[in-house]
Amino acid sequence: MFYMPGIRVNPEEPFEIALKRFRKQVEKGGVISDIRRKEAYEKPSIARKRKEASARKRLMKRLRRVRMRENRDY
Fold first, then answer.
1. Tell me: the pLDDT tens digits for 6-39?
2. CB–CB of 18/7 below 8 Å?
3. I need a labelling partner for 48 at 20 to 30 A (CA). Which of 17, 42, 64, 71 fits?
4. Separation of alpha carbons 31 and 29, rounded Å
């Protein structure tokens, strides 16, 4: 789930800078990726496989960080 991004624009702030800040908020909030994911129906089995792959990727990333921390030479 995501939150609705929003920004407050100062009267003297240029439009381009405000738009850039808004785009950053949208990207940070995951709005675009969520909409793309919900564009088409995803079968429960496919969703489960995607979630498992994501969990595997997070685990490998965590293990890689731990190994790097253990191999540091000071």
1. 899 999 999 999 999 999 999 988 888 888 888 9
2. yes
3. 64
4. 6
